[in-house]
Design goal:
By secondary structure, the chain is of the alpha/beta class. It is built from 15 helices and eight strands.
């Protein structure tokens, strides 16, 4: 038996934020990252809409970087005595992941972190609060997903917490939130969405439901991502919806080695998650082609790429991903990103070991050994095609 779970309500389009005026509840904790959501007036708008419904609010902030376990625990303690019945995550992946972690620790203050990172092992949430996600970037789909990616500050290792309990109750996807995104954020979050669509289409737990969302999202991204990067507002809106569609796909089909590698190397090299995905994706496609060439060919055909055979179409897909990177100034190798060979060599063995243990590796279409994971990192560092 398969399962497909997404938020109960997804409100999208112009003025979708106004749905907050109809929210039922008494108190809401609004979790944000840095100052941008304040500076552009979006936070004031959110708080104003909640106020119209007489909902008391408390703003929890400071998650502009990768969220860490202990910080999430400390922020959860700030809710003691306030007792919100809604937690609202506003931002890109980091603030939204932090909001979900705060939600867990608010409901279960004594839960051990080691228990939370066991796949689909969370106890029932919503004993105290429900969750709303409002994205301010177009890529992570955290407003849709059943994941929270958080770093263990003691080890520096990033872990995904995966549970259908974390699927938000409501997602509000308003294009006004991404109208003024910087180019770099559009590029990095966009490559995150592209990776979600491709990895979920070939992941082991894929279904007909996830396939349809993944491949449609890929086509929209093909048509609109670079245009969004160049400033087209209509394309930016379409990308904002496509990333949520890709999020519905990967939340149920899961992902693969691209994300395993990004999770374990991003903190080590301080590479933003979406950028890391953009770098690794072509190499992992090449690695997985021995078992998924027909799936990659189907994506390539849907995108209108050239090729007669599955092999040619897979090559075309790899070249398309690289061309996206080039069009948006995303590097195509770790070396091009600026990581020294000495630093890479120092950490590659540990990263390969940790990536092998990442939950996303278990759903990658091709079984992967620790040595193969290391060779994938090496190929991605030097920019060498994967032929093993």
């Amino acid at each position: 038996m398969n399962r497909f779970t997404i938020p109960r309500d997804i409100f999208f389009g112009e003025n979708a934020l106004e749905k907050l005026k109809e929210l039922e509840g008494k108190k809401a904790a609004v979790v944000i990252g840095g100052g941008s959501v304040k500076e552009n007036g979006h936070l004031d708008k959110i708080l104003s809409y909640l106020s119209e419904k007489d909902i008391e609010t408390k703003v929890i902030e400071g998650f502009s970087g990768e969220p860490e376990v202990e910080m999430a625990r400390e922020k959860a303690k700030e809710l003691d005595g306030f007792d919100p019945d809604w937690i609202i995550g506003v931002g890109g992946g980091s603030p939204m992941d932090a909001a979900k972690a705060i939600w867990i620790f608010y409901e279960y203050p004594e839960i051990e972190f080691e228990e939370t990172i066991k796949l689909f092992n969370l106890p029932p949430l919503r004993k105290k609060a429900k969750f709303i996600g409002i994205p301010t970037t177009s890529g992570t789909a955290s407003e849709i997903s059943n994941l929270s990616v958080i770093t263990d500050g003691k080890t520096g290792i990033k872990y995904p917490i995966a549970s259908f309990e974390l699927t938000p109750d409501m997602a509000i996807i308003d294009p006004v939130m991404v109208e003024d995104l910087p180019e770099k954020l559009i590029a990095y979050s966009g490559m995150d969405a592209v990776t979600h669509s491709i990895e979920s289409y070939v992941a082991k737990p894929r279904t007909v439901f996830t396939d349809s969302l993944a491949i449609e999202a890929a086509e929209i991204l093909k048509d609109h991502l670079v245009s969004s990067y160049k400033g087209n507002k209509e394309s930016r809106e379409q990308v904002h919806y496509a990333q949520a569609m890709a999020g519905m796909a990967f939340s149920n089909a899961v992902l693969g080695n691209v994300h395993s590698m990004a999770h374990k190397s991003g903190p080590t090299f301080e590479v933003p998650h979406g950028c890391a995905n953009g770098i690794y994706l072509p190499y992992v496609i090449q690695f997985n082609r021995t078992v998924s060439a027909d799936r990659f060919a189907a994506i390539a055909k849907r995108l209108g790429l050239n090729g007669e055979t599955s092999e040619e179409l897979t090559d075309a897909l790899v070249n398309w991903v690289r061309s996206l990177n080039e069009a948006m100034n995303v590097p195509n190798s770790l070396k091009e990103y600026g990581i020294s060979e000495e630093l890479f060599t120092k950490h590659v063995d540990e990263m390969a070991k940790n990536a092998l243990e990442d939950p996303c590796t278990s759903t990658n279409p091709r079984e992967t050994s620790e040595n193969e994971m290391k060779k994938l990192f090496q190929a991605a560092y030097y920019g060498e095609d994967v032929t093993f």
